[in-house]
Amino acid sequence: MSELDQSAPTVRGGREAVPSGPVRELLAPRETALGASTVVRRLLPNLGRRMVGAWCFVDHYGPDDIADEPGMQVPPHPHIGLQTVSWLHQGEVLHRDSLGSLQTVRPRELGLMTSGRGISHSEESPRPHARLLHGAQLWVALPEAHRHTAPAFEHHARLPEITAGGLHGTVILGELDGATSPGTTHTPLVGVDLTLREGSTAQLPLEPDFEYAVLTMDGLTEVDGVRLEPGSMLYLGSGRRELPLRALADGSLLLLGGEPFEEKIVMWWNFIGRSTEEIVQARSDWTEGSRFGEVHGYDGQRLSAPTLPSVPMKPRGRAG
């Protein structure tokens, strides 16, 4: 997915705004249209919190009834300096990219694309498609040592699971409680899909050096005593060794965490770089048809890059 803020590029990252201990910071979503028929709730970047570890972008969408709609239709667009994570609870997404990948991603399967120095891709609901579409799209910022790597795409239909009483978890990326995802990571981080039965409680083991956030996908849950409704995200800070969870109704959560990202990054449109000059060059390369390859098979035109702003870049930290 794409269409990040198209205003001035902003600098994010660095450890200075990472709380040294646990917090309970509720992040309000911002609704934004994506393509012709999909409305998403954007949780990261947020005015109150811009990164969680290397996680730098989180969209939650659905459940949407798309029986009589085209569903997700995101034309070919470019990326640099990041990984995209496609995660579904309902429906399917057909992924195409400039490497020649053609893959349908289904619920609880990992679609992981590493853009590295440059890739383009499209995402769409297959034809025909399921009635309901519900999921999340997430980005992971690549560190300096890996951000110019060759692009790649991975699909993992089977992922490790954890269970404890009324809790079930699927490890999307990283490791939790001895279960390790096969997905490639470049910084210490974790992403876990959690489901809880109504009335169940659990104590989730955490890494005290990580910062964490929890996104409620559906149902009604309490995380560290804070009641969360679908589409809301709770930032938890760092310094935790466990996290208390309680299900007020059947529910599901995404746990996202990682070591605070050391580097400052510049985000604009679909690009993550380290300077405005890098972003300008990436935009020029996409406009001129170089660097990003071509996505074959998508029925439609590729996205045009928006106009770069004339205002200076505004440095910002992880928060504020």
Question: How would you portray this structure in words?
Answer:
- It is built from one helix and 28 strands.
- Helices cover 4% and strands 48% of the residues.
- It has a single domain (20-264), classed as Jelly Rolls, CATH 2.60.120.10.
- The protein has 320 residues and is mainly beta.
- 47% of the residues are buried.
- The model is unreliable at 2-7 (pLDDT under 50).
- Strand 14 (161-164) and strand 15 form a beta hairpin.
- The two termini are 25 Å apart.
- The protein has a seven-stranded antiparallel beta sheet, with no helix packed on it. Strands 3-4-5-12-7-10-13 form a seven-stranded antiparallel beta sheet, with no helix packed on it. The chain has a four-stranded mixed beta sheet with strand order 27-26-1-28, with helices on one face.
Outline:
This protein is about 5% helix and about 50% strand. With about 325 residues, the chain is mainly beta. It has one domain (about 20-265): Jelly Rolls.
Poorly predicted runs: 2-7
Secondary-structure element string: EEEEEEEEEEEEEEEEEEEEEEEEEEEHE
CATH class: Mainly Beta
Distance between the termini: 25 Å
Number of domains: 1
Helix content: under 10%
CATH architecture classification: Sandwich
The count of DSSP E runs of length 2 or more, i.e. the number of strands, is: 28
Helix run count = 1
* Class by SSE composition: mainly beta
What is the arithmetic mean of pLDDT?
A: 91
What is the CA-based Rg, rounded?
19 Å
Which strands sit side by side, in order, in the main sheet? 2-23-20-25-18-15-14
CATH superfamily: Jelly Rolls
Question: Strand percentage, roughly?
Answer: over 45%
Major beta-sheet overview: 7 strands, antiparallel
| Backbone shape | globular
CATH topology: Jelly Rolls
